[in-house]
Amino acid sequence: MPCPRPRRELAVPTERIGPPLVGDERTMLRAFLDYHRATLAMKCDGLTDEDLRRRSMPPSELSLLGLVRHMAEVERAWFRRTIDGEEDLPLVWSPDGDYQTAYDAADSTRSEAFAAWEAEVEHSRRIEREAASLDVTGHNARWDIDVSLRHVMLHLIHEYARHNGHADFLREGIDGTVGA
User: How far apart are CA 180 and CA 140, in angstroms?
Assistant: First the structure.
């Protein structure tokens, strides 16, 4: 069992707003996606770079910082490369298209990883806002398929929800913090 220790508090903790109980499809998808984005950020609140780089267990490279880096790649791949058509845009940490590479955060810092992730989230939000509808389609070159913005948003909700489960366990292993 991890030894509980004081956390370094951030000046401004992550604000997470629960999704509405009623709303149109686009509003609901946007709100659930933002809720899961905020959940990942919350799991990292108050931790040092060293804490954020702490790996789950050998031989896994999984860490909270690795999850942030991975989700930056996922945001970029689905919103910018697929929906916005920037197919030649390289991934940030995975030049060969191997998304596992982003998990290796051994030399990464909070500021570097979060700056990239937050930038990708802002690109994603802009692309979604500017899309005429959820039926807008883009081409995913990796799998040679066409997908709708609706599919991309649902896929990202799935990705965040799955990885936020990992983040729960990682955070508990670092300082015993559980829940939410």
Answer: 33
What tokens appear for 56 in the block?
A: 């789950």
What whole-number distance in Å separates Cα of residue 25 and Cα of residue 22?
A: 9
pLDDT band at residue 7, thresholds of 50, 70 and 90? very low
User: Mind listing the pLDDT tens digit for each residue in 40-52?
Assistant: 999 999 999 999 9
Distance CA 92, CA 69 (A): 8
Asked if the structure places residue 3 within a domain, the reply is no
Contact 91, 77 (CB under 8 A): yes
- Domain assignment present for 8: no
Structural domain contains residue 47: yes
**C-alpha span between 166 and 162 (Å, rounded):** 7
For 69, the domain range is 25-175
Question: What are the tens digits of pLDDT across the range 90-130?
Answer: 999 988 888 888 999 999 999 999 999 999 999 999 999 99
Please report whether residue 2 resides in a domain. no
CATH number where 150 lies:
1.20.120.450
Structural domains counted in the chain:
1
CB 38 within 8 A of CB 165: no
